[in-house]
Amino acid sequence: MKKIFALALVLCMIFALTASAYADFAPTGPVTMIIAYKAGNGTDITARILAQYAEKYVGQTIVIENVDGGKGAIGWSQLAKANPDGMTIGFINLPNMFSAITPEVGFDASSFAPICNHVTETSVVIVRADDERFPDLNALVAYGRENQGTKNELIASTNGAQASNHIGAQAFANSAEFTYIDVPKGNTNEETTSLLGKEADFCVVKVADLTSLGDSVRVIGVFAEERIPEFPDVPTLGELGYYDQWLGSSRCVVAPAGVSEDVIKFYEEAFKATMEDPDYLAAAASFATDYKDAEGTAKLIEQQKEFTESLNEGFWYDY
Which of 180, 210, 240 is the last residue of a domain? Predict the structure, then answer.
């Protein structure tokens, strides 16, 4: 009898602790999650998987709202202006959010309250699978050096001028000492469509962006210090004597600035539980879940802000 009573007491304590973490806030209806890109984009794909499995812990339906345009600026502006009542959250993408910040957009890093990091994605160099000119990264570099300044100069489509994949393409080209013509698109979907339509010769994208591309592209280089599990047979750029640091994108869940600490805590705990859920992990096996709590995400945002500002001081080239 004493054992039963003790067990009941422990269960009550666990319930009380769990309830206390959620007691001061809980969403009262469907939660809107703003994605600043079109449906089918890498962020959209990973966010939908997170939202699907998070509903169990949030206790409400999570409705994805795609707000595309302005390299993400339109969606981030809408998120920044949303009512800070905990019913609207969304994703910001690093570092490209900082390249989208201008005096006209009406938001900056202080416009958002960090909740957690969801995905940290490594950038990769891709070409069309049927493009026999570029069996590997060295062949692409050799072609680029040989044809720079000619009518056959390499062309790279990107997800926007000074957006994340443009950052990758330029870091690669600078380190490999070749030039290319940039064809900026509105988002990664349009970027890869340009490649597949033979408007471009190569692209830089993130690993999760490959999910919908299947066998139509070939990965020939990875922006990492070591080879990554997703592509163990693909060399890093550093291995071949080019850009030797990690480069990629982080996707963070945030709320509009001004939400209460109870809102942050609620979602922080709900998404942590989601990202530890075996069913979620099975569904998310194709991309790199990288949970960071609100404090860790705030540090990441500041770090990426400083990184982007350092690029602005000497990275961008004149077209």
Answer: 240
Contacts of 249 (CB under 8 A, 6+ apart): 93, 94, 95, 96, 120, 121, 123, 164, 206
- For residue 214, pLDDT over 50 is answered with yes
CA angle 243, 204, 232 (to 5 degrees): 70
Residue ending a domain, choose from 240, 274, 300 = 240
pLDDT given for residue 69 in this prediction: 85
Q: How confident is the model at residue 1 (pLDDT cuts 50, 70, 90)?
A: very low
Count up the domains in the chain and report the number. Answer: 2
Do the bridges between strand 217-222 and strand 248-256 make them parallel or antiparallel, or are there none, so unpaired? unpaired
Q: Is the pLDDT of residue 73 over 60?
A: yes
Chain CA centroid to CA 192, Å: 16
CB burial readout 217-242, b (16+ within 10 A) else e: bbbbbbbbeeebebbeebbbbbbbeb
Question: Is 67 in contact with 75 (CB distance < 8 Å)?
Answer: yes
List the structure tokens of 212. Answer: 């919908």
pLDDT band at 311 (very low <50, low <70, confident <90, very high): low
DSSP 8-state assignment for residue 71? G
The verdict on whether omega for the bond into residue 84 sits within 30 degrees of 0, i.e. cis, is: no
pLDDT on residue 249? 87
Q: How far apart are CA 268 and CA 272, in angstroms?
A: 6
Distance of alpha carbon 272 from alpha carbon 288, whole angstroms: 15
